[in-house]
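Action item from last week, closing it out:
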Amino acid sequence: MASLGRRAGTYICSELCGSILNQRRYSSSRVDWKQLRPMILKRIKSRSKEYPIKRMIPVAQEVLRAREIVTEGVSTLLKVVQVQSCKFCPEVHIGATGHEMKTCHGFKRMIKDRPHKWAPGNLNDILVPVQAFHLKDMFQDEIKHDQRFDFTRVPAVLELCHQAGADIPDEVLYRSERLSATANDNSQQPAPILPDQLRYIGQRTLDAWESLRLGVTKLLLVYPSKVCEHCSEVHVGPSGHKARMCGVFKFEGWKGMHKWKKAGVDDLVPQKIVWHRRPHDPPVLVDGGRDYYGHAPAVIELCLQVGATVPPKYHCMMKTHGLAPPVQ
């Protein structure tokens, strides 16, 4: 035991002495920053020549095509499938009548466990619009607070594809995301759609949705994007902007500055999660069965109701084989 203790002490002393000697060696070799500064500045100026990456241009073009298919398909399905939207919170339910679960929290989240007040939904309730500043150059100077009105706001996915080298027409890039057509617009009676054609539209929309999210995931691995930790503001670029628009810090000393972090696919293409009604569930979902019901993204639920085949990765979220709530 004594020999083991001496060996351990010798090993610890050698490690400590070695680290101290390494620190002395590193501290003695000083870096001449005056010589490195021109090299660093030259590297920063020349990095814009590496973008856009040619191999990622087809991915950006595929994302644009998938986005157009999803928008067109959801707009068509909303003429057939009814969608309900709460007046006081972002809750959405896909069906003729809204559910009876008390999950409304109001505008400012000052209340909870209140019933929803349902109204007809529209396209923005299914495909949540995410806007970002449109940059002429990926590596241009940061947008100051006083310059926030000098830059146009465009959809974040289109801005990502634009920086990736995709050719986007101006009428598509600057088109407003707000559509006035609601899910139950009675002013125009849509032409009847056959069930087989409706099923084809739903499956095509679902496949395009999966292709859209996969393409955005690939682009985010190459082109950096930022999202605020305290709000939903998104900026496509290597560093966030300086516009003070964050409401969390409005009454604090930060003066509305955003706290940026790396953005993901859910920040640019949000999945609007809705309640999923299974075949063995009651016609109207009640508050007592909240722990038994499943969930699904709004686009997936919308396509499912017209006969589309859902990928197996959503079955766990939807609780396809789960138990039904007890009958009271």
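Closing note: The mean pLDDT is 83.
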